[in-house]
Amino acid sequence: MPKNKFNYLACIFCGKNQYINSPNRPPFGGNQIEPLKYKIFQVRQAEGRGNLGKGHGGFQLIPEESLNIEEMIEREPELVEQIKERLLIIVKAYQKAGIITSEDLRTRKAKA
After folding, report:
1. How far apart are CA 25 and CA 19, in angstroms?
2. What's the 3-state SS for 32-77?
3. What 3-state DSSP class applies to 79?
4. Which of 43, 68, 111, 112 has its CA 20 to 30 A from that of 32?
5. Which residues touch 66 (CB under 8 Å, ≥6 apart)?
6. DSSP conformational letter for 18
7. Measured between alpha carbons, how far is residue 76 from residues 31, 44, 72 in Å?
8. What is the pLDDT of residues 67-110, one digit of tens each?
């Protein structure tokens, strides 16, 4: 590959790109957080100017005000519905491409 070309993988959900060949990149699918416990609706507070490398500053997560999927159902039902619709679009696309089967959805246990 030419030196001026780079491989990226775009998140099919949000579109964020990640450089594939970075030595610091964790493996894809390496997030071991239990999906039902993960605080996807995050409340953050600005702290200082974000001094890089010092472990403080930036937007700090406030866990007690953040919500997981189940907690969002009551407080953010429209957002939950939008997320569901995007997930269904993605799953249907993977089914159409032959990557996910109906059997996968019925029998496979998701990795936490």
Report:
1. 8
2. CCCCCCCCCECCEEEECCCCCCCCCCEEEECHHHCECHHHHHHHCH
3. helix
4. 43
5. 39, 41, 42, 43
6. E
7. 24, 17, 5
8. 999 999 999 999 999 999 999 999 999 999 999 999 998 886 65
Domain-embedded: residue 29: yes
Task: Look up the domain containing 71 and give its range.
Answer: 8-107
* CA–CA separation, 35 and 49 (whole Å): 31
pLDDT confidence of residue 31: 64
Tell me which H or E stretch contains 103: helix 102-107
Phi, psi of 96, rounded to the nearest 5 degrees: -60, -35
Residue type, 12: I
How many angstroms separate the CA atoms of 9 and 76, rounded?
29
- The residue to which tokens 């894809």 are assigned: 28
What confidence score (pLDDT) does residue 112 get? 40
Task: Kindly state whether residue 2 falls inside one of the protein's structural domains.
Answer: no
